[in-house]
Amino acid sequence: MSFCCGASMLGTKGSLKHYRTQVHNVPLLFCPVCHRVEVHYKVENEYEVLAEYAHSDGLSEIDFQDFVMENEDSIFSNCVNREDEDPMDIVQSQIDMSLDLLTVAKQIGDAKWESELKKRLAVMSRRRAKLIRQK
Q1: Which runs of consecutive H residues, i.e. helices, occur in 1-135?
Q2: Residue 3's pLDDT is what?
Q3: Band of residue 125 on the pLDDT scale cut at 50, 70, 90
Q4: Could you say which of 65, 82, 99 is where a domain stops?
Q5: pTM for the complete prediction?
Q6: Which of 30, 31, 35, 41 minimizes the C-alpha distance to 75?
Q7: Count of other CB atoms within 10 angstroms of residue 28
Q8: Which label site among 5, 9, 33, 83 has the fewest CB atoms less than 10 Å from its CB?
Q9: Are residues 105 and 69 both part of a single domain?
């Protein structure tokens, strides 16, 4: 599980640009609060090799899943949520986890972590309210 802004990141697939080459369907981890994106650590090496080869061959686009045969369920098995889930379920899960972690942060007296979790909770609460208004 990867963490950012005090709690877990979402598993998803997306496109990344490596110099002039677009690499599509790359397994990614995404922070729903600060929007940080990183290549999933289980395929990070494969991504680097494929992106470098594609760039050196002068390709403008390449599809990651055409060359790397990783099972999507295996890759994202350590993610608490995936982007293809119901948005309300994702937000509620993220809020619940952040509240649990906030209790731990308070118990151990980690003020910095506590502050990060409170910011994350504020963002996720606003997102939850927006989703409720949309329904």
Answers
A1: 44-56, 64-67, 72-75, 87-108, 111-134
A2: 73
A3: very high
A4: 82
A5: 0.71
A6: 41
A7: 21
A8: 83
A9: no
Residue 115: which domain range?
Answer: 87-134
Place of tokens 């502050």: 115
What is the tens place of the pLDDT at every residue in 71-97?
A: 777 777 777 777 777 889 888 888 998
- What six digits make up the tokens of 52? 């470098």
What's the CA gap between 9 and 45, in Å, rounded?
20
Residues 32 and 74 reside in one and the same domain: yes
What is the count of structural domains for the chain?
2
Q: How far, in Å, CA of 114 to CA of 39, rounded?
A: 27
Tens digit of each residue's pLDDT (9 = 90 or more) over 16-56: 998 889 999 999 998 888 888 999 988 899 999 999 999 99
Name beta bridge partners: 61.
Answer: 22
To the nearest 10°, report the CA torsion of 115, 117, 118, 121.
Answer: 160
- Picking from 97, 88, 128, the residue whose alpha carbon sits closest to that of residue 6 is 97
Same domain? For 59 and 91 the reply is no
